[in-house]
């Protein structure tokens, strides 16, 4: 039975050096040859994953944790964050010296010329500090924003803004998403396009933004390097991403043989 394989990127496909291990690539190629469909499920933006999509010949992806979904390189679902909400979050954040970054499918921009927290977290994705365009959200659809604060400062955002979700992905950064937006909702949207059933899906991930995906997928695999909560929810825990963990999971599930 053909499976839809939903692959997180950072910490799952890419190792701690943001490289694609050779064993992982070979496992993906073998799984496709066995009739399984590969799809990316990531918190990243489409413009951030172009090279990886090309290298792996993948044309189906869930990005922005479910806010922008493409099947065969055609967008099948887009959900932007309300601009009035972004204006209020920006004002709230500025009072606390917390900068924002706004993203659409093509680019990301910052609310401030430079901030060390933006630099640290965006560099972890191997991208430079974005250029400043404080009013970007007024004239562009924004599918995801980032607010830069530490974990102990996060709760005030949850309390103040009930119509969006804040999901931490870095020591100093949280994703901002429309309420209920998640990779899990993205899977529901995607299977309508691919023709798979929910029970035919297998999710592979490591982070907190993978939790709902783990719960909804037919089967779920967490990386050994993953967050403890993610590992608790998974059906199977594989090895560390730096030690061929994804390839081991494909072997365990019989996807690559």
Automatic annotation (TrEMBL):
Coiled-coil positions are none
Entry GO CC: cytosol
Query: Can you say what this protein is called?
Result: Cof subfamily protein (Haloacid dehalogenase superfamily)/HAD superfamily hydrolase (TIGR01484 family)
Q: Name one GO molecular function term.
A: phosphatase activity
NCBIfam families (alphabetical)? Cof-subfamily, HAD-SF-IIB
- Signal sequence, renumbered to the chain: none
Gene3D superfamilies on file? 3.30.1240.10, HAD superfamily/HAD-like
InterPro entries in UniProt: Cof, HAD-like_sf, HAD-SF_hydro_IIB, HAD_sf
């Amino acid at each position: 039975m053909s499976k839809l394989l939903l692959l997180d990127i950072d910490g799952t496909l890419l190792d701690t050096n943001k490289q694609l291990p050779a064993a992982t690539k070979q496992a993906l190629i073998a799984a496709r040859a066995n009739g399984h469909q590969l799809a990316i499920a990531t918190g990243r933006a489409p413009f951030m994953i172009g090279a990886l999509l090309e290298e792996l010949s993948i044309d189906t992806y869930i990005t922005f944790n479910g806010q922008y979904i493409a099947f065969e390189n055609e967008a099948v679902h887009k959900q932007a964050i309300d601009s009035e909400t972004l204006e209020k979050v920006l004002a709230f954040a500025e009072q606390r010296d917390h900068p924002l970054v706004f993203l659409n499918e093509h680019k990301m921009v910052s609310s401030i010329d430079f901030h060390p927290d933006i630099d640290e977290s965006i560099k972890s994705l191997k991208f430079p500090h974005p250029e400043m365009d404080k009013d970007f959200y007024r004239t562009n659809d924004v599918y995801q924003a980032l607010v830069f604060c530490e974990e102990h400062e996060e709760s005030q955002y949850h309390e103040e803004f009930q119509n969006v979700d804040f999901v931490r992905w870095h020591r100093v950064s949280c994703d901002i998403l429309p309420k209920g937006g998640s990779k899990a909702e993205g899977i529901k949207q995607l299977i309508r396009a691919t023709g798979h059933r929910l029970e035919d899906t297998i999710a592979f991930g490591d982070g907190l933004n993978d939790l709902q995906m783990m719960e909804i997928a037919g089967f779920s695999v967490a990386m050994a390097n993953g967050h403890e909560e993610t590992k608790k929810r998974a059906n199977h825990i594989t090895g560390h991403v730096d030690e061929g963990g994804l390839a081991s999971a494909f072997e365990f599930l019989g996807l690559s043989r």
